[in-house]
Amino acid sequence: MDADKEIPVGSFSGTLPQLLLAQAARFGSEQAAIREKAYGIWQTYHWEDYLRYVKHVGLGLIALGFRRGESAGLITDNHPEWLFAELGTQAVGGITLNLFTSAVADELKTSLNRLRASFVFAQDQEQVDKMIASRAGLGHVRHVIYIDPTGMRSYKKDPWLISFRELLEKGEKLDQQRPDLFTAELRQGRPEDTALLIQTSGTTGMPKMAMLSHRNLTAMGESWVRAISIRPGENWISISPPAWIVDQMWGLGVALQGGMTMNFPETPETVQEDFREIGPSRIITASRFWEELASRIRVRMADAGFLKRFLFAQAERVGLSVADRQVRGKTITPALKFLHRLAALIVYRPLLDRIGCANFLSAYTGGHPISPDVITFFRAIGLNLKQCYGLTEAGGIFQIQPDEEVKLETVGKPLPGVQVRIAEDQEVLVSSRAVFQGYHQDYQATEAAFVDGWLRTGDAGYLDHDGHLLIIGRKEEIIRTKSGEAFSPDFIETRLKFSPFIKEAVIFGEGRPCLTAMINIDFGNTGNWAEQKMIPYTTYLDLSQQRAVEDLILAEIRKVNEPLPEVMKIHKFILLYKLLDADEDELTRTGKVRRRFVYGLYLRLIEAMYSGEEEVRVKGKIRYRDGQTGEIDTCVRVIQAL
Amino acid sequence: MKAFRGQPSIYEKSDSTPRRAELEIRGLTLHFGGVKVLSDIDMSVRSGELFAVIGPNGAGKTSLLNCITGFYRPQQGTILFNGEGIAHLHPHELVRVGIGRTFQNIELFPGMTVLSNLFLARHTHCDYGLGPACLFLPSVRREEMRHRRILEEIIDFLEIHALRNKPVGSLPYGMMKRVELGRALALEPALLVLDEPFAGMNLEEKEDMVRFLLELNRAWGQTMILVEHDMAIVMSIAQRIAVLNFGDKLTEGTPDEIIRHPEVIRAYLGDEETI
Fold first, then answer.
1. pLDDT per residue over A2-32, tens digit each?
2. Residues in chain B whose beta carbon is closer than 8 A to a beta carbon of chain A?
3. Residues contacting residue B207 through CB under 8 Å, at least 6 positions apart
4. Regarding beta strands A282-286 and A362-366, do their DSSP bridges make them parallel or antiparallel, or are they unpaired?
């Protein structure tokens, strides 16, 4: 391969901080390693700077008494400090665990306790306050290092708290006193050491902590660099939370290995704008990102003037027919080719540029099955969107669709160095150097995760005749109705959620005679629709119980029902009066529905759909974002869809 | 890196030792024709203080602020700022003296972006001439970059990054108030005068604003006078409070003294007999 000449793939065996050292020697102050938007402009950190900050964090920790084999918790947002803190800790033999900044104090305490973290990196005052709130239960935490100094003036007297700036200064001082210390520490690291832990989202029960070694991540990086020929200086934009596998795998694995530039947006609110300025070349995000982008484009197009609407419709038609022919392997006529080029010039390029997607060499969607309609839509407008598949325990994403063989329903082929096979019970099994070391302090779960040395993914699937993997759904989520017919709720929910008016859908039917659904309307889009129809409404609750909205959703459900086989059709549904919320444990932090929990919580409503009631009176408490509680008293109607 | 941000450079030197802002008001009287708005008000604000003025509707709070910031001319009395009489000065001259303010009903330019609105506040700090500005000489360029940096630090502090290039007219009310605070800060005032900074805000916006004001005052020693209706907020953040009622000053003191003062209770809750 050509890429092999430029990138030292396969030649590296060491820890992640050792890899950073090698890349800093290679790129020095020539190439940008990290960019962060601050004060309205992109600030660049070269590879040398990257190494220097990591060194100072590591030595700073030693100055504060950190010992090899100890661990640190990171509660940070997407900023360069995250990488500095994480690699700095690992450089001096520490193990890291990233936690969600949106987690409540108790969740954080539980995780840090299980890890017995001796240091915590906290993003800002908000996170520090959570630490202080559970300080009594965090006896093992010797220091909390806060990154953003805003609002921290009044905490200055507390020796438990140390600023990131002070940590760097301590590290710098120690480096001057003992200039060989860092290299000596770095050398002690071995590739098979545990580098980091990642909490798996855990749709059922308590989250588990997967241990990934340095080798797991470097192997993953290698596979990716090789598979899609990543070149130094390509851009990645860091927008998914560091507590999630995707940015860990990319930031520490692929970007380090491939010499890519990590770009950090200014704030979560400016992502759209910053995204466009960077024009990243590679992206992996949750299917939700693409679904929202597609629906945003559609809504904006619907509001556009006649000419734009007309051109867009024509261009989309051309694109769809080209994409369709490509998938079926049919030839594209010269006339169609010409129209496609024209459409690209007039519509696709400007549109993709507007949403910051013009520079993509490859774009992937994962985490959750995506509706084929969304993928087709993006491929039709010239964005090379493909599906991928992976899991935390396998070190990240290990299945991608190759460029020339895109099939809408599959998740493609394994990366180089990864083996995949299907067990007798249809479970997907995987084996590679990136497969994790086991769950932290959970021998039983670790045993259960493997079969004959292969990692069990927990997903059911099969390989088609071209060797592409097809995922049906979670093995334990394949549900049977009363008559014993199997269906995948996820499969139906995904299709429902492609409607711009449906935010979330939950399908029920286990051991029941037929399927029913609970729907969360999309407040923004449905609200806009209601305004256009001159339907007055006040709150989410009010809007969700409007007759006109019920009819609107009914039409959407009938549309989804139509192509589905008889057993998978939705018979009845209700519109829930509130949004499912991660703060109330109804969703996981990554936005997946906790099906069984939701089932138990709304059993009364679900029973009503099966017992033939037409209306259910609901009384209950709801909790607002600011912590206040309110009473609700409303009637939820059961709507017939068949 | 966020770790190196957090404190705008315009506050760097002060480092919680406040810039001098001694305000002394003696015998201030203001009337519009036969209507007496303020009568014989005495009041003083010390450097580094967060001083609040409260009172029922029509008590003369905003009129008092307008006298301090040169919008109204009092008929009697003196206003001394750092020992200098300022009652005769115009608003733009007061800015040079070191008094910056926000307004009860937002006074921004709705058609201009947030950044342009903030830039307006910097023109008193520009010291290049017309000629070099026309040629956009390197010295001018450097100066402009210095101003932009100061504004960006304020944007960072007030967490309005996403609004930078949005026209002010398209923003929600609470955000406009924040931008107005930003513009007042960009003046680098020694004394910051805030007229109802919390009016029309929801709970979250109020919490944010409290956070900003506390950081400004407690950490960086910004002297402030604020007029406000939300008693809970005033009582928890102000160091001293003056109470006005129908143009008279009822009392002045710490929040604890004010909350127990019988006159204040009567002015706010009415007479016991009428309850």
1. 333 344 445 678 999 999 999 999 998 989 9
2. 1-7, 16, 148-149, 152-153, 155-157, 159, 161-162, 164, 203-204, 211, 215, 218-219
3. none
4. parallel
CA distances from B271 to B106, B230, B267, B268 (A): 35, 21, 8, 9
Is the CA virtual torsion A563, A566, A569, A572 positive or negative? positive
Chain B residues close to A149, C-beta within 8 Å: 3, 5-7
CB contact under 8 A, A270 and B152: no
What is the distance between the alpha carbons of residues A33 and A49, in angstroms, rounded to a whole number? 8
- Residue A56 touches chain B, beta carbons under 8 Å: no
| Phi, psi values for residue A386, rounded to 5° | -135, 165
Residue A24: Cβ within 10 Å count: 21
Highest mean pLDDT among A295-299, A423-427, B267-271: A295-299
ipTM score of complex = 0.86
**Residues forming a β-bridge with A427:** A460
Contact call for B3 and A168, based on CB within 8 A: yes
Report CA Rg, chain B. 20
With residue A444 as reference, give the H or E element that holds it: helix A443-449
- Give the span between the Cα atoms of A294 and A153, in whole angstroms: 44
**Looking at residue A331, what DSSP letter applies?**
P
Neighbours of A154 (CB within 10 A): 12
User: Which residues partner with B41 through β-bridges?
Assistant: B28
Contacts of A184 (CB under 8 A, 6+ apart): none
Residue linked to tokens 């954080």: A108
Q: How many CA atoms lie within 13 A of B93 on its CB side?
A: 11
B219/A149 Cβ within 8 A:
no
Q: How many whole angstroms separate alpha carbon A611 and alpha carbon B241? A: 64
Which ranges of chain B does DSSP label H, i.e. alpha helix? 61-68, 91-97, 114-120, 130-135, 138-158, 173-186, 203-214, 231-237, 255-260, 262-269
For the stretch A310-367, pLDDT in tens is 999 999 899 888 888 877 778 888 999 899 999 989 998 899 988 888 888 889 988 6
Strand spans (E) along A76-206: 95-98, 119-122, 143-146, 161-163, 194-199
Task: Write the CB contacts of A307 (distance below 8 Å, at least 6 apart in sequence).
Answer: none
